[in-house]
Design brief:
Helix content is 27%, strand content 32%. The protein is an alpha+beta fold. It has a four-stranded antiparallel sheet. Strands 5-8-6-7 form a four-stranded antiparallel sheet. The protein is rod-shaped.
Length: 154
């Protein structure tokens, strides 16, 4: 014979037929229906087929898992819940007035006030003693800001 033939039925119901010739040449036939003529035919050299195979098995690229993404974020970002004490410089001021992002390099992503959670608060949102702000930023910037709020910095 001329080589070896492999057939694959996809989850969608399409058929792919791959013929590997003794010469190393590969032919890929794509059928939308197994009884039809092929919709597409691709001829590959041995080297092209190996490159394509390497890509398909994920040797050149692996999609990043959610776990890897979270691990990466946790190495580079810090999330902190900071309770605003009485007499803090934050009390009675809006996020816009405080310029937290600009001055301290962190972002307020939420404010917890009593039983309410305000996600992505407006720049005009005024902070009160007893609020808990949820901030995100680099570990260094978050630590500096936390010390400032606790009265131990600047």
């Amino acid at each position: 014979g001329i080589g070896k033939k492999y057939s694959v039925k996809t989850e969608k119901g399409d058929y792919i037929v791959i013929v590997i010739h003794h010469t190393g040449k590969r032919e890929i036939y794509y059928f939308e229906d197994e009884n039809e003529e092929p919709t597409a035919v691709i001829e590959l050299t041995d080297e092209e087929a190996r490159t394509l195979g390497t890509i398909l098995v994920g040797a050149l690229f692996q999609p990043t898992s959610d776990e890897e993404k979270i691990g990466f974020l946790m190495k580079h970002l810090a999330f902190e819940w900071i309770r605003i004490p009485e007499g803090s410089f934050l009390v009675g001021k809006s996020l816009k007035e405080l310029e937290i992002r600009k001055k301290y390099g962190i972002i307020v992503v939420a404010v917890i006030r009593e039983e309410n959670i305000i996600v992505s608060p407006s720049p005009l949102f005024p902070l009160q003693a007893g609020d808990t702000i949820v901030v995100v930023g680099s570990l260094e910037n978050v630590k500096k800001f936390l010390k400032l709020v606790e009265g131990k910095g600047e």
